[in-house]
């Protein structure tokens, strides 16, 4: 699988990363019940097929996703680029809060290292902004963690340029993790050019819009506690418009002998500012299918057609 770098001295990441939000199981923003055995198979399939990095977060299943990943990677830790996050914490009832206070981060990282069964984290990312605490203090704490060898690279997620600039004054940001896919293109205007200019890696999340762009999405199959039941793009009137848009993409996917899901992931990677696409999966079969989003290119003509269809359907 092709690999990309975000700077001369950055590590090489495969075009696809394994996303682990789904495998966390039930929590406030969970995807309904999961089968841990299937999750393990999915991660192993990803790694055995050449995917060299995993994205996770403590919040995914309140530690559950990190624990599953820790079990899988312990025998091959040095071959994997492991990314996790901090800043979303939970109370005794499992309710999620933002907290980027340095003290909270010091506790979070120790818990993540334990669950992940590792002595270091390759990429540590601030999951969401936290208005209650000055980002400068938070970022200084991350620099300290880097200096004492607990983390190797420093990332942010869901940050805007103003917030990134405040971090950059203290220490360069290695990566940004934003949402980016066929129906969520707002980062193209300012964030992507900014990252390109500053040499910040872009790790695009939800390339399939959490399953919606696969062409196989069926809302009636979702568990009662799957967060997608409440997601704005999963409700009418947007849901039908998006499903119509995907139908229009099918002939383009057909020309390459691909599914619309594979086309959607490839489309994200057609933007050279993107370092890698983080693709979530519940089963090894999904991973296998998604691997076919690599090693081919969408033509310029089709990229233009996709732009036009997007403008028609997603006003
Ligand atoms: N930083 C952040 O705030 C943030 C936010 C969102 C995501 N992320 C990261 O990005 C990763 C990916 O994003 P995402 O989980 O939202 O979703 P995604 O990659 O857009 O879609 C993944 C989901 O689509 C379905 N799917 C995947 N492959 C499929 C296939 N071949 N056929 C049919 N269905 C398939 C599966 O769900 P079902 O089988 O249940 O339909 C799977 O869990 C996350 O796991 C996480 O690591 C980060």
Q: Your description of this structure?
A:
- This protein is α/β, with parallel strands linked by helices.
- It has a single domain (11-211, 270-296), classed as TIM Barrel, CATH 3.20.20.100.
- Helices cover 37% and strands 16% of the residues.
- It contains 10 helices and 12 strands.
- The chain has helices spanning 36-48, 64-73, 102-116, 135-147, 161-168, 191-198, 238-255, 260-269, 284-291, 300-313; strands at residues 3-4, 13-14, 16-19, 53-55, 81-86, 88-90, 96-98, 121-126, 151-157, 175-177, 201-205, 276-280.
- It has an 8-stranded parallel β-barrel, surrounded by 6 helices. A two-stranded antiparallel ribbon has the order 1-2.
- α2 (64-73) links the parallel β4 and β5.
- α1 (36-48) packs parallel to α9, α2 crosses α3 (102-116) and α7 runs antiparallel to α10 (300-313).
- The chain is globular.
- It starts with a strand and ends with a helix.
- The protein binds NADP nicotinamide-adenine-dinucleotide phosphate.
- NADP nicotinamide-adenine-dinucleotide phosphate is lined by residues 19-22, 31, 55, 127, 157-158, 177, 205-211, 214, 216, 261, 278-282, 286, 289-290.
- Residues 19-22, 31, 55, 127, 157-158, 177, 205-211, 214, 216, 261, 278-282, 286, 289-290 line the site of NADP nicotinamide-adenine-dinucleotide phosphate.
């Amino acid at each position: 699988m092709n690999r990309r770098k975000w700077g001369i001295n950055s590590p090489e990441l495969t075009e696809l990363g394994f996303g682990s939000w789904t495998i966390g199981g039930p929590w406030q923003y969970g995807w309904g019940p999961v089968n841990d055995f299937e999750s393990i198979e999915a991660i192993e399939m990803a790694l055995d097929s050449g995917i060299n990095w995993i994205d996770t977060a403590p919040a995914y299943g309140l530690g559950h996703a990190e624990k599953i990943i820790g079990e899988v990677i312990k025998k091959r830790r040095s071959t994997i680029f492991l990314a996790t996050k901090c800043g979303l914490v939970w109370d005794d009832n499992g309710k999620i809060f933002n907290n980027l206070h340095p003290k909270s981060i010091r506790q979070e990282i120790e818990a993540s290292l334990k669950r992940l069964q590792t002595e270091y984290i390759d990429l540590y990312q601030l999951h969401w902004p936290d208005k209650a605490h000055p980002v400068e203090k938070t970022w200084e704490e991350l620099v300290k963690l880097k200096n004492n060898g607990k983390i190797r690279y420093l990332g942010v997620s869901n940050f805007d340029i103003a917030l990134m600039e405040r971090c950059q004054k203290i220490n360069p940001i290695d990566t940004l993790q934003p949402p980016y896919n066929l129906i969520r293109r707002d980062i193209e205007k300012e964030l992507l050019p900014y990252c390109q200019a500053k040499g910040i890696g872009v790790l695009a999340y939800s390339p399939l819009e959490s399953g919606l762009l696969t062409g196989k999405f069926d809302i009636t199959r979702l568990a009662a506690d799957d967060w997608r039941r409440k997601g704005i793009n999963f409700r009418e009137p947007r849901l039908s418009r998006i499903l119509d848009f995907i139908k229009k993409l099918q002939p383009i996917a057909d020309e390459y002998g691909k599914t619309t899901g594979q086309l959607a992931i490839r489309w994200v990677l057609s933007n050279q500012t993107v370092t890698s696409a983080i693709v979530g999966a519940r089963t090894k079969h999904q991973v296998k299918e998604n691997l076919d989003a690599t090693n081919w290119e969408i033509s310029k003509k089709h990229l233009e057609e996709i732009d036009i269809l997007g403008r028609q359907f997603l006003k």
